[in-house]
Amino acid sequence: MWTVFKKEFKSYFLSPIGYVAIGIFMLMYSIFFYLTTITYGSVFMGDLYYATARYGLLIMIPLLTMRMFAEERKSGTEQLLLTSPRSVTSIVLGKFFAAVAVILITLIFSIVYPVIISFFGNVNILTLIVTMLGFLLVAMAAISIGMLASSITENQIIAAIITIVVLVAPWFLVDISTIFSSIDLIDKFIKFPSGLISIADLVSLLSITVMCILITIILIKRRKMVK
């Protein structure tokens, strides 16, 4: 897994994808920092991370995940990957954690905003940590969804569209059926910015992440058996 992780993580920064993704994310952070914090003179950072999670992830996650498997299927290198000594599980987890590492980088960079606010008021460190934890959990679940989407098509654009639709659809379909609320990632993030860790939301986010990873592994293994 470590070998795949290093390869995938390096690939983000050997191409423009990593820089573009982080740059866009930091731009989103800055915009929402101005809109939610500077404009109202507030020291509450929850709105910043909530808004960035709701809208920023819609851009960043497809960028990070659309090429994971789709690019290799299209270029024909997937067969080489599947016939390598590495297990499918290690390949999938390596790719997953490489994308998570990019998210962690943006979270580390985002600390600059609480530092700025600390000069004008007291920032609740515990609440900030809980908020960032929730943000990371939501991002992990979104990455797993994007990775699954990438594994079922060889077209990166289609993979990106599928990811965005799955992330956005629950916002509008929850009124039709409550079943859609179970896959609404942002709904499960609402309590974290207040410094509250909901066990139900935490378990739900982790369950979505694990489920999508397992489905991806199963799909890749089936393709490996066929080839």
Q: What do these coordinates show?
A:
The protein is 75% helix and 0% strand. The chain is mainly alpha-helical. The protein has one domain (2-226). The longest helix is centred in the C-terminal third of the chain and has 28 residues, at 199-226. The two termini are 22 Å apart. The mean pLDDT is 87.
Percent of residues in helices comes to over 70%
Rg, alpha carbons: 18 Å
User: Strand portion, in percent?
Assistant: under 5%
Query: Which structural class do the helices and strands define?
Result: mainly alpha
Helix and strand run:
HHHHHHHHHH
Identify the overall geometry: globular
Count of structural domains: 1
Q: Identify low-pLDDT runs.
A: none
Instruction: Tally the beta strands.
Output: 0
Average pLDDT rating? 87
* Count of helix runs: 10
Biggest pleated-sheet summary: none
Give the end-to-end Cα distance, rounded to a whole number of Å. 22 Å
Brief account:
The protein is mainly alpha-helical and 227 residues long. 75% of the residues lie in helices and 0% in strands.
